[in-house]
Amino acid sequence: MVTILPLSRIFPRIPPLRSFSALTARTFASRRAAATERLHDSDEDLAAARKWLTGLNTQTIPRHICEISFSRSSGPGGQNVNKVNSKATLKVPLQSLLPLVPRILHHPLRSSRYFADRTQSLVIQSEESRKQAANVESCYEKLHLLLKNTAADLIPGETTQEQKDRVQKLKKAENEARIKSKKLHSSKKSNRRGSKSDD
User: Fold this and answer.
1) Rg of the Cα trace of the chain?
2) Minimal CA–CA distance to 114: which of 97, 137, 131?
3) pTM attached to this predicted model
4) Which SUPFAM superfamilies match (predicted)?
C-alpha cells in the first residue's frame, strides 16, 4: 500500500520575505543625504570656509551664546580643591553655534567627544587651575582648538595656479589622445570598407 502525502507536508509553505520598514528606509535616506551634502561643497563654500578659518581666534565665537557653570574640582590643588567651586563647565548650544561656523563643520561637531546628545550642546570642562577665571579661559581655549583642528582637517587648501595649469595640461593631453584614437578607429573602418568594395 502506497501512502500519498499532501504537498503541504512535502513542501512546507515558505513565508514571504519581509520588506524594509519605513524607519529603515528613512535611515538609509538620511545617511545618503548626509554623505551627498559633504561631497558637494561648492567652491564658494570652501572659499568662505578658508576665509573663516584664517580669521578664527578665541573671540570668534561670541561668549554671550555660551553658558558657564562651576563645581568643586576633583583635581590637584591641596585642601582648597574641595572647598572652592573652581571647576568650570562651558556649554555651547549647537543651535546658536552652527550658524556661526562653516557648514562643512556641522556633522563633525555633532560627532565630537564634547557633544552631549541630551542637551544638543558642546560641553567642555576645565579644572587645571585653582582659579575660576583661569579655568573659564581654558574652556574657551579648548573650544577654539576644537574648531581650529576640525576645520584644518576638513577644509582643503586652495589650489595654486601651478596646480590649475597642470590640470589643464592633463585635460588637454587626454582630449587630444581621445580625438587621435577616434580618428585612427575611423580610418580603420574606412580601409575595411574600401577593401570590401575592391573585391
Assistant:
1) 32
2) 97
3) 0.57
4) Peptidyl-tRNA hydrolase domain-like
